[in-house]
Design goal:
189 residues, 10 helices, 7% strand
């Protein structure tokens, strides 16, 4: 397994399609995915607020499955670092503190501007949009990413989502580069 660590921010765990893709990528051994109970609370709380039609038990089940399937995913003990961190949004300090504590190389987030290079670089961390993160994974191991996407599609139940529907869904979540890299391999998905 790779020793490279990526912390998933709550905003990339909020949309089910992206969360599921990131979970399948986490199982590829290209990197070690990490998050905290606080990150869980944030994405789940936002879903409860915005989608009251989704039963809380279903969200708890997703959380349990995520934690069970990704080894050593939960970061603990990061809280003392928060007070000394300065970010545009103080509510994001816990994510950076967790990333520092677990020696992450990347924070995967839609909110890249919330994590400026000046605050992250001293810790050897960068913030990446999920599209850039997946693009980098694609260039590291094309076969692993294609297999993760194929597994993601296969896990979606019956009737299966078509490749075109899956790629359109990725586009709707801002993964334009990812989709352009996957299209030539559509027959494998």
């Amino acid at each position: 397994m790779s020793q490279f660590v990526a912390v998933y921010d709550a905003c990339v765990l909020y949309p089910a399609l992206l969360r599921d893709l990131l979970m399948h990528l986490a199982l590829s051994d290209l990197f070690r995915a990490r998050w905290t109970e606080r990150i869980h609370a944030e994405w789940m709380g936002n879903l409860r607020m915005n989608r009251p039609d989704i039963p809380g038990e279903k969200l708890e089940r997703v959380r349990r499955l995520m934690d069970a399937h990704v080894p050593n995913c939960l970061i603990t003990g990061y809280e003392p670092l928060e007070a000394d961190l300065h970010l545009p949004d103080p509510d994001d300090r816990h994510v950076l503190a967790a990333a520092i504590h677990c020696h992450a190389g990347t924070i995967v987030t839609y909110n890249v501007k919330h994590f400026p290079d000046a605050a992250l670089a001293p810790h050897g961390i960068n913030a990446q949009h999920p599209d850039s993160f997946i693009e980098h994974a694609f260039h590291i191991d094309l076969a692993a990413v294609i297999a993760a996407v194929a597994d993601h599609r296969a896990s979606m139940g019956s009737p299966a989502m078509t490749v075109a529907q899956l790629l359109d869904g990725y586009l709707n979540h801002g993964l334009a580069t990812t989709v352009s890299l996957l299209r030539p391999h559509a027959a494998l998905l």
